[in-house]
């Protein structure tokens, strides 16, 4: 899927992700993954940094990643997971059209992906479709800043050009509202600043389940 491929951004992002892994972002990855279990779906594998943050309760992983350069960047992390006894299947697909049956996964991880997908609502509808009853969704997403803050003003200024320099990423998506509209209980999610890059500093972290 060539339109999803940004090789230069992939190289930059892989380097940044690995540098951040020993700090607040790495700890947030562990926090977001805490309640994942069973057969896990990772939407947007990226460079694969989430794989070594998964708890022992995750027995296998199926990951969708439409970018060839990102799949290549994740190859060593995928190999390490397989060598450690956890199977990982990587599929060239997008979150808006998951090649998985209904109710076929126990948990889902959304980590720095809803900012980049073309249709977040459709992705979340697909998450709801493939998730088994009682399943969990781990969330680590940078999101829109609170209204009236200087960071929100920075996001407004950056939003027209940010996707061009960040592999299609949008810096100001209201992911909490999107999750709630999709039927998930967003009460457990916390929002805090994780990185020192204002357009993408505010992050939403935690675990959601279907409301009710």
Can you walk through the features of this model?
The chain is 33% helix and 24% strand. With 212 residues, it is an alpha/beta fold. The protein has one domain (2-210): Rossmann fold, CATH 3.40.50. Strands 1, 2, 3, 4, 5, 6, 7 and 8 form an 8-stranded mixed beta sheet that branches. Helix 5 links the parallel strand 4 (105-111) and strand 5. 44% of the residues are buried.
Q: What's the main sheet like? A: 8 strands, mixed
CATH architecture grouping = 3-Layer(aba) Sandwich
CATH level 1 class label: Alpha Beta
Indicate the low-confidence ranges by residue numbers.
Answer: none
| Helix-strand category | alpha/beta
According to CATH, the homologous superfamily is Vaccinia Virus protein VP39
How many distinct domains? 1
In N-to-C order, the SSE pattern is HHEEHHEEHEHHHEEE
Structure summary, number of beta strands: 8
Helix content: 25-40%
End-to-end Cα distance, whole Å, is 37 Å
Assembly status:
single chain
Specify Rg, calculated over alpha carbons.
Answer: 16 Å
Average residue pLDDT: 95
CATH topology: Rossmann fold
Shape: globular
Number of helices: 8
Strand and helix map with partners:
Blueprint: H1 7-20, H2 24-33, E1 38-43, E2 58-64, H3 68-73, H4 75-83, E3 88-91, E4 105-111, H5 120-130, E5 131-142, H6 150-158, H7 162-165, H8 175-181, E6 184-185, E7 190-193, E8 202-210
Parallel strand pairs: 1-2, 1-4, 2-3, 4-5
Antiparallel strand pairs: 5-8, 6-8, 7-8
């Amino acid at each position: 899927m060539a339109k999803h491929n940004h090789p230069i951004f992939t190289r930059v992002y892989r380097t940044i992700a690995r540098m951040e892994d020993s700090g607040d972002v790495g700890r947030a990855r562990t926090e977001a993954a805490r309640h994942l279990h069973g057969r896990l779906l990772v939407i947007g594998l990226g460079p694969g940094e989430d794989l070594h943050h998964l708890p022992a309760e995750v027995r296998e992983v199926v990951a969708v990643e439409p970018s060839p350069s990102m799949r290549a960047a994740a190859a060593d992390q995928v190999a390490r997971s397989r060598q450690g006894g956890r199977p990982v299947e990587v599929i060239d697909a997008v979150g808006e059209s998951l090649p998985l049956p209904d109710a076929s996964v126990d948990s889902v991880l959304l980590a720095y992906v809803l900012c980049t997908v073309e249709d977040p609502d459709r992705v979340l509808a697909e998450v709801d479709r493939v998730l088994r009853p009682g399943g969990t969704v781990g969330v680590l997403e940078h999101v829109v800043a609170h209204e009236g803050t200087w960071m929100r003003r920075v996001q407004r200024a950056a939003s027209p050009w940010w996707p061009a320099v960040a592999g299609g990423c949008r810096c100001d998506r209201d992911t909490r509202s999107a999750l709630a509209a999709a039927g998930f209980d967003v009460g457990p999610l916390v929002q805090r600043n994780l990185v020192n890059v204002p357009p993408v500093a505010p992050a939403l972290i935690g675990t959601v389940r279907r409301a009710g």
